[in-house]
Specification:
By secondary structure, the protein is α+β, with helices and mostly antiparallel strands. The protein contains six helices and ten strands. It holds the Pfam family BMC.
Length: 218
């Protein structure tokens, strides 16, 4: 592996429940039109959240649950648990399967962390969301279709990078994740024009690479 190589994520398990039991539907706060859910686990939470958002743009589904697990995929509770679980709800199995399929495509082939050092032990996520779907719009409290810079890194790198990104582009903080998160990372969502969000991603990436190259520089 080399610096800036992609660190690909994987889907670990998926299931569709065609007709959710009413007691379960109540727990997920499903609407009357949401009779079906689809679940997935994966070994990377932030990539999965981007993928779940993309699912809401590709199919008639809503993200009704998404949660990271404590300590990350390396300390998962089982071989199919990974780092995160996501639940999509929709009117029927076809909609939910389409959403899960789109999420899987994004997780396995599109969004990814990158290596900040030669062995990939220091990883970061600087992903441009060109236009949010229903999930990230709600999580970032922005209008649907807004651009976001989705920025995540280990604790110090994340805070240094967020500051650099805010200074480099005309963006605002839509969500701030102070470390430690469940997976002991930090970061946030920055919003602005698509070009500004891309510039923010680039500045964040460079800041993380600078820390990785000279961690004790003052």
């Amino acid at each position: 592996m080399a610096v800036l190589d992609d660190i690909k994520a994987s889907v670990l398990a998926t299931r569709v429940i065609a007709a959710v039991d009413p007691a379960m539907a109540e727990q997920f706060k499903l609407t009357k039109n949401q009779r079906c859910i689809g679940m997935l686990t994966a070994d990377c939470d932030d990539v999965t959240y981007v993928a779940l958002d993309e699912a809401t743009k590709a199919a008639d589904v809503e993200v009704v649950y998404g949660r990271s697990f404590y300590a990350g995929a390396a300390h998962a509770s089982g071989p199919l648990s990974g780092e995160v679980i996501g639940v999509l709800a929709g009117p029927g199995p076809a909609d939910v399967r389409a959403g899960l399929q789109r999420a899987r495509e994004v997780i396995e082939h599109e969004a990814c962390f990158k290596a900040a050092n030669a062995d990939g032990s220091l990883a970061f996520f600087a992903h441009l969301v060109s236009a949010t779907g229903g999930y990230l719009s709600k999580e970032g409290n922005v209008p649907r279709g807004q651009a976001l810079a989705y920025l995540i890194a280990p604790p110090l790198e994340a805070m240094f990078g967020m500051d650099a990104a805010l200074k480099a582009a005309n963006v605002e903080i839509a969500a701030f994740f102070a470390p430690p998160s469940e997976t002991n990372f930090g970061g946030g969502y920055l919003t602005g024009s698509q070009a500004a969000c891309k510039a923010a991603c680039d500045a964040f990436q460079q800041a993380v690479l600078d820390v990785a190259a000279q961690p004790l520089d003052i």
